[in-house]
Model the fold of this input.
Amino acid sequence: MTKQEIMSKLPYSKPFLFVDELLYIDENRVEGIYTFDENLDFYKGHFKDYPITPGVILTEAMAQIGLVCLGIYLVNDTFNKNTSIALTSTEIEFLKPVFPNEKIIVISDKIYFKFGKLKCKVIMKNEKDEIVCQGTIAGMIV
Done:
Protein backbone atom coordinates (compact mmCIF):
# COMPACT_ATOMS: atom_id res chain seq x y z
CA MET A 1 0.00 0.00 0.00
CA THR A 2 1.42 3.39 -0.97
CA LYS A 3 1.61 6.46 1.25
CA GLN A 4 -0.99 8.16 -0.97
CA GLU A 5 -3.39 5.21 -0.65
CA ILE A 6 -3.06 5.36 3.14
CA MET A 7 -3.74 9.11 3.14
CA SER A 8 -6.84 8.61 0.99
CA LYS A 9 -8.23 6.08 3.49
CA LEU A 10 -7.93 8.32 6.54
CA PRO A 11 -11.39 8.82 8.08
CA TYR A 12 -10.81 12.54 8.68
CA SER A 13 -11.18 15.78 6.75
CA LYS A 14 -10.24 19.39 7.35
CA PRO A 15 -10.36 20.99 9.85
CA PHE A 16 -9.75 17.75 11.80
CA LEU A 17 -7.14 16.18 9.51
CA PHE A 18 -3.70 16.48 11.13
CA VAL A 19 -1.59 14.68 8.51
CA ASP A 20 0.03 16.63 5.66
CA GLU A 21 2.40 13.96 4.40
CA LEU A 22 3.77 10.54 5.26
CA LEU A 23 7.55 10.48 4.98
CA TYR A 24 8.14 6.80 5.74
CA ILE A 25 6.13 3.71 6.59
CA ASP A 26 6.80 0.01 7.05
CA GLU A 27 5.33 -2.71 9.30
CA ASN A 28 7.16 -1.36 12.37
CA ARG A 29 7.38 2.42 11.92
CA VAL A 30 5.69 5.46 10.46
CA GLU A 31 6.91 9.04 10.14
CA GLY A 32 4.71 11.93 9.06
CA ILE A 33 4.47 15.69 9.17
CA TYR A 34 1.85 18.32 9.82
CA THR A 35 1.90 22.12 9.99
CA PHE A 36 -0.51 23.76 12.42
CA ASP A 37 -2.15 26.54 10.38
CA GLU A 38 -2.53 29.76 12.36
CA ASN A 39 -6.15 30.02 11.18
CA LEU A 40 -7.31 26.88 13.00
CA ASP A 41 -10.27 27.85 15.14
CA PHE A 42 -8.92 26.66 18.49
CA TYR A 43 -6.13 29.26 18.42
CA LYS A 44 -8.74 32.00 18.97
CA GLY A 45 -9.29 30.87 22.55
CA HIS A 46 -6.25 28.78 23.54
CA PHE A 47 -4.95 31.22 24.67
CA LYS A 48 -6.45 34.50 23.41
CA ASP A 49 -3.28 36.60 23.75
CA TYR A 50 -0.71 33.80 23.42
CA PRO A 51 -1.99 31.03 21.13
CA ILE A 52 -0.56 27.54 21.59
CA THR A 53 -1.75 24.19 20.30
CA PRO A 54 -3.87 22.32 22.89
CA GLY A 55 -2.43 19.06 24.19
CA VAL A 56 -5.51 17.16 23.07
CA ILE A 57 -4.84 18.31 19.48
CA LEU A 58 -1.17 17.29 19.73
CA THR A 59 -2.35 13.89 20.96
CA GLU A 60 -4.78 13.66 18.04
CA ALA A 61 -2.03 14.47 15.52
CA MET A 62 0.17 11.80 17.11
CA ALA A 63 -2.70 9.30 16.94
CA GLN A 64 -3.61 10.08 13.32
CA ILE A 65 -0.05 9.72 12.06
CA GLY A 66 1.36 7.26 14.58
CA LEU A 67 -1.56 4.90 15.04
CA VAL A 68 -4.20 5.29 12.33
CA CYS A 69 -1.81 5.56 9.36
CA LEU A 70 0.24 2.61 10.63
CA GLY A 71 -2.93 0.64 11.35
CA ILE A 72 -4.24 1.21 7.82
CA TYR A 73 -0.89 0.02 6.46
CA LEU A 74 -0.91 -3.10 8.66
CA VAL A 75 -4.46 -4.21 7.83
CA ASN A 76 -3.88 -3.21 4.17
CA ASP A 77 -6.68 -4.27 1.82
CA THR A 78 -9.06 -5.25 4.62
CA PHE A 79 -9.38 -1.56 5.63
CA ASN A 80 -12.56 -0.08 4.15
CA LYS A 81 -15.46 2.24 4.98
CA ASN A 82 -16.86 -0.36 7.40
CA THR A 83 -13.62 -0.52 9.41
CA SER A 84 -13.75 1.21 12.78
CA ILE A 85 -10.85 2.79 14.59
CA ALA A 86 -11.03 3.59 18.29
CA LEU A 87 -8.44 5.10 20.57
CA THR A 88 -8.18 2.97 23.71
CA SER A 89 -5.40 4.58 25.74
CA THR A 90 -2.81 7.31 25.75
CA GLU A 91 0.02 8.22 28.06
CA ILE A 92 1.59 11.42 26.75
CA GLU A 93 4.18 13.68 28.33
CA PHE A 94 4.14 17.27 27.05
CA LEU A 95 7.54 18.95 27.09
CA LYS A 96 7.37 22.08 24.88
CA PRO A 97 4.60 24.20 23.37
CA VAL A 98 3.67 24.04 19.69
CA PHE A 99 2.75 27.41 18.20
CA PRO A 100 0.64 28.44 15.20
CA ASN A 101 2.37 27.77 11.84
CA GLU A 102 4.79 25.30 13.43
CA LYS A 103 5.61 22.14 11.50
CA ILE A 104 5.96 18.96 13.51
CA ILE A 105 7.15 15.46 12.70
CA VAL A 106 5.62 12.42 14.35
CA ILE A 107 7.67 9.23 14.63
CA SER A 108 5.86 6.12 15.77
CA ASP A 109 7.33 2.70 16.49
CA LYS A 110 5.05 -0.31 16.85
CA ILE A 111 5.19 -2.01 20.23
CA TYR A 112 2.70 -4.69 19.19
CA PHE A 113 -0.20 -5.40 16.87
CA LYS A 114 -2.36 -8.38 17.81
CA PHE A 115 -6.06 -9.21 17.86
CA GLY A 116 -6.81 -5.86 16.23
CA LYS A 117 -5.08 -3.83 18.96
CA LEU A 118 -2.16 -1.62 17.96
CA LYS A 119 0.13 -0.04 20.55
CA CYS A 120 2.92 2.37 19.60
CA LYS A 121 5.67 4.47 21.14
CA VAL A 122 5.20 7.93 19.64
CA ILE A 123 7.43 11.02 19.58
CA MET A 124 6.58 14.46 18.21
CA LYS A 125 9.44 16.81 17.30
CA ASN A 126 9.53 20.40 16.12
CA GLU A 127 11.62 21.75 13.25
CA LYS A 128 14.53 22.31 15.64
CA ASP A 129 14.52 18.53 16.23
CA GLU A 130 13.39 19.07 19.83
CA ILE A 131 10.95 16.59 21.36
CA VAL A 132 7.73 18.46 22.15
CA CYS A 133 5.78 15.45 23.41
CA GLN A 134 6.15 11.70 23.66
CA GLY A 135 4.45 8.64 25.02
CA THR A 136 2.40 5.60 24.10
CA ILE A 137 -0.85 5.40 22.22
CA ALA A 138 -3.04 2.34 21.69
CA GLY A 139 -6.15 1.70 19.68
CA MET A 140 -8.41 -0.95 18.20
CA ILE A 141 -8.99 -1.57 14.50
CA VAL A 142 -12.11 -3.65 13.89
The two ends are 19 Å apart (CA to CA). The mean pLDDT is 94. Residues 21 and 33 are 5 Å apart (CA to CA). The chain has two helices and six strands.
